[in-house]
Amino acid sequence: MLTMLMAVPAFAAAATATAGSTADIVASVSFRSGPSTSSTVLKYLKAGEKVTIVETVNSYWYKVKESQGNIGYISSSETYVDVKEQPVSTGNAVIVASVSFRTEPSTSGGRIRFLQKDEPVTITSQVNGYWYAVTDKNGVSGYVSTSDQYVKVTGQITPPITVPTGNAVIVASVSFRKEPSTSGERMRFLQKDEPITITSKVNSYWYAVTDKDGVSGYVSTSDEYVKVTGTIPTPKPDPTPSVPVSQQVESVIAAGMKYLGTPYEFGSSRNTTTTFDCSDFVRQAFKDALGVVLPADSRQQGAYVRERSSVTTDWHSLKRGDLLFFMDYKGSGASNYADKDPFGETIRHVGIYLGNGQMLHTYSTESGGVRVSDIAGTQWENRFLFGGSAL
């Protein structure tokens, strides 16, 4: 028996088995440390034992997991193994572009492998705004980016992604406006039984609220339309009421400069300062300097600035301390951005304007973390959408 197994099997190559399929051992076969007859025999699998196919290595070898959970390699010949093919789950999402499949919802999490374009996955939950918990077609669990650049949701997520219930509910359909005024632009109608979060009471007539999708706006305070179900945050006094705006700006920039060189991490924790993504960094600078807590991501920060100040689409008109917002990278040429809509594109990046054509920001691991960059003649000039003051 040993002599026969020392050579490459002389029988016809077996069909490729789907990862995750089970198989029965039909004749005693070597369970080896590698896909080669020269690899160490770890033990012999006996007829009647069951294994799970991990991977079809080539025409002669399967990588398998035996009943004790050990991983090894066996001959793929039907003389030794009978594969019971299992249907491959189509999942509820598909990979749009190759993306890291990680052990934790963080870029510092170990990479299990790269999920490939058109590969189906099953989203089991959304950890936060940046990470999905998923299971791949082989039943392996891990985490991937929520960016639609990488993942397209194609079906229902079960269990559903939990939506915050907020502190109020809509009683009857009501206008959701961009400003606390009936002349403010209506974004849509909030519907009966829709949960919202009241962030503050602007005056006797208007609440500032956030809907279930994280969009900020204003609704009537009338109990004909809104029923308060929780606690409304008490407005905090202006942290620096007597400090000139120019001095506040310098405080924010000084606070940001303290983090020069801090490593970049996409989806960084908002509870530490060991790593930052772009919006986390801007948020921390304002929090450190003024006690002002900006929204958690760049899109919400863009909406925050538009609500509180006049904005400009010409970066040359920005003032020191203004926030700059940018669209996704589409190439180095200016022609790639000729048709951009400053207020219609999705915001993908934010930075703090320093004046003299420079900004303070962080955008990639390779760039060295928090840094100062020039705007003119770079991708940032092409990608710029609008900017304005958050103060």
Automatic annotation (TrEMBL):
Coiled-coil features, chain-numbered ranges: none
InterPro entries in the cross-refs: NLP_P60_dom, Papain-like_cys_pep_sf, Peptidase_C40, SH3-like_bac-type
Entries under SMART domains matching the protein: SH3b (SM00287)
Gene3D superfamilies linked to this entry: endopeptidase domain like (from Nostoc punctiforme), SH3 Domains
Cleaved signal peptide residues: 1-19
All copies of domain SH3b, residue ranges: 16-83, 89-153, 164-228
Domain NlpC/P60: 246-391
Protein name per the record: SH3 domain-containing protein
Organism: Cohnella yongneupensis
